[in-house]
Design a protein that fits this description.
Elements: E1 20-24, E2 27-31, E3 36-37, E4 43-44, E5 58-62, E6 65-69, E7 74-75, E8 81-82, E9 96-100, E10 103-107, E11 112-113, E12 119-121, E13 127-129, H1 137-158, H2 177-184
Antiparallel strand pairs: 1-2, 3-4, 5-6, 7-8, 9-10, 11-12, 12-13
GO molecular function: calcium ion binding; Notch binding
Biased composition (Basic residues): 140-160
Region (Disordered): 123-185
Length: 185
């Protein structure tokens, strides 16, 4: 009869980087701490393998962690937050933009309100929103007038430089001279 004695395969602590060795019959198994893998816990887990950095950030692998070197104007663990939520167009109508964590707030001048100062506030509680992009209604009206004027000019050009008979106005068209003068002036 041959006697076998079981040798403790963990006696020399073969598991690296703080791994725990579990002895078996002529074998052992390593249980690795977070950040390490492999049969002997000798391979650093690459936490950058899934590209956690956003917005052009560069990932730097650490043991059981990573950090991102963020591109200009970005911040946060994964470069997910803008350095500033404000730019020249964030607040309309002369409002001043302030960063508020990962958001912004607008300090609106008198007569304006809303998240981006795009709501005109009038005495008595009435309010009117301005168009997107911070443009005020006066500019929008002026643009529409210019557009209509261009259309009329094109129409006249197609009609040989004069207005068509259906759009004639003046004393001969049945409009009184006073009304004609008002329309012209």
């Amino acid at each position: 009869m041959v006697l076998r004695s079981d040798i403790n395969d963990c006696i020399n602590n073969p598991c690296g980087n703080g791994g725990t060795c579990i002895d078996g019959v002529n074998s052992f198994q390593c249980f690795c701490p977070d950040g390490w893998e492999g049969q002997l816990c000798d391979h650093n887990v690459n936490e950058c393998r899934h590209n956690p950095c956003k917005n052009g950030g560069r990932c730097v692998d650490l043991v059981n962690d990573f950090y991102c070197e963020c591109a200009d104007n970005w911040k946060g663990k994964t470069c997910h937050s803008r350095e500033s939520q404000c730019d020249a167009t964030t607040c309309s109508n002369g409002g001043t933009c302030y960063d508020h964590g990962d958001a912004f707030r607008c300090a609106c001048p008198p007569g304006w309100g809303g998240n981006t100062c795009n709501t005109a506030q009038h005495p008595g509680g009435a309010s009117i929103k301005t168009p997107p992009g911070g443009e005020d209604w006066n500019n929008v009206r002026k643009k529409k007038k210019r557009k209509k004027k261009k259309k009329r000019k094109k129409k006249r050009k197609r009609a040989g430089g004069r207005a068509s008979s259906s759009s004639s106005v003046g004393p001969s068209s049945g409009i009184s001279k006073t009304l004609w003068d008002r329309k012209r002036g």
